[in-house]
Amino acid sequence: MVACQSCGHSPLKEVIDLGYMPAVNAMHKIGEPVAEEPFFPTIMSVCEECELVQLGGPPPDNSKVFPPDYPYTTASSKPLIENFRQLALEVSEIKPGKHSVLDIGSNDGTLLQAFRDLGHEILGIEPTDVADIAINNGIPTLKRFFNKSLGDRLAGKFDVVTCCNCFAHMPDVNGVVEGIKKILKPDGIFVSESHYLFDLLRDVQYDTIYHEHLRFYSINSLAYLLKQHNMSIFDVKYIPIHGGSIRVYAQTVKTSKSTEWNFAVNGEPKRDDLYRALNEFAERVVISRRQFWADWLGEMVGIGAPSRGTILINYLGLNHNDIRCVAEREGSLKIGRYIPGTRIPVVAEDFALEQKPDYALILSWHMADAIMQNWRGKDYKGKFIIPLPLPRVI
Ligand SMILES: [Zn+2]
């Protein structure tokens, strides 16, 4: 059973299941021979103990999610360069003087460059080949994943540790926080930037639910996580990066009441209000998807689960939000299983008919006439969709 990545509580409560999705940055090159491409379960869940919204389901292999030829670089985005310049300035104001700065997930070194321009000492950690760009630009960078053992090696060396758009990406987040605590000097500060949960919910950004994003932080869930390691938040800034993010400042030493972040004015939904917001989000995701398929707006089931139906469904990008279930004749061994590559369940015909769907997609379309006759005979009142050679509604 999958346990909460922060507090270890289980089971997690499911918010929405997007079905199986491929790793979004494992991009095969045009012209290369066709290769196997893995798909992974893609579920958003919430922990009812610490309220962390997170990727449910088994975590995929990191090397598949972050391939060595990872195609994303920071310097390709102007707003990000400006954001990082602001961050370096802000840190210099909060903590005057010259510092040693470590950036975890330093990408092409854009943030570290901004710190160096202000006279700070810098070091980056970046596991992908993007590190080579930084190294070629003279930004000292360790090409590897950040973990506890690296924390041991760099213990007590840094005044500032930053982790921007990767603090939600790393597995074993408790080990990561312990490592960060270790490398910070006693009065050091930790700055993270992460996509903000409530912006994601507000704008139905379900397209950000993928395997690199293991956690979707609210300030509350982030505070809970850090508190488990005796770290506390002392400032938060809302920034417009990536469709709405939070920049969160934390430190190890106990903050006095006057400097601790004021959660009372923060006003994030909690408990039942949070779960209501998450449910509403899940409903809006499905509505948004259906709007896209407006021609077929309404409840749809499939008829028949032939091998060819698997290809049709995957090729059209249909999932269980579009097709509630696929009907097979009683006695079929396929009943009780999923259509491959999806979470669409195969059910007995009578169960599908009881749903009184608006549309029935005939997957064994080469036998459409017989199937339509059979279903009309069972009092089906909705329409039929015959998908090929061109979709027809009857
Ligand atoms: Zn939890």
Protein described:
Helices cover 30% and strands 23% of the residues. The chain is built from 13 helices and 17 strands. It has helices at residues 62-65, 78-94, 110-117, 130-136, 148-153, 173-183, 197-202, 219-227, 263-266, 271-292, 307-316, 349-354, 368-377; strands at 13-22, 39-46, 53-56, 100-104, 121-125, 141-142, 158-164, 184-195, 215-216, 232-239, 245-251, 300-303, 326-328, 346-348, 359-362, 383-386, 392-393. The chain is elongated and about 80 Å long. The mean pLDDT is 90. The structure holds zinc ion.
Brief account:
With 394 residues, the protein is an alpha/beta fold. It contains 13 helices and 17 strands. It starts with 12 loop residues before the first strand and ends with a strand.
Tell me the major beta sheet: 7 strands, mixed
Question: Which cofactor or ligand species appear?
Answer: zinc ion
**Average of pLDDT:** 90
Order of helices and strands: EEEHHEHEHEHEHEHEHEEHHEHEEHEHEE
Proportion of residues in helical segments? 25-40%
- Please report the number of helical segments: 13
The total beta strand count reads 17
Radius of gyration: 25 Å
Look at the helices and sheets and give the structural class: alpha/beta
Q: Which regions are unreliable across 5 or more consecutive residues at pLDDT < 50?
A: none
Sheet with the most strands: spatial strand order: 6-5-4-7-8-11-10
Q: Roughly what fraction of the amino acids lie in strands?
A: 15-25%
Shape: elongated
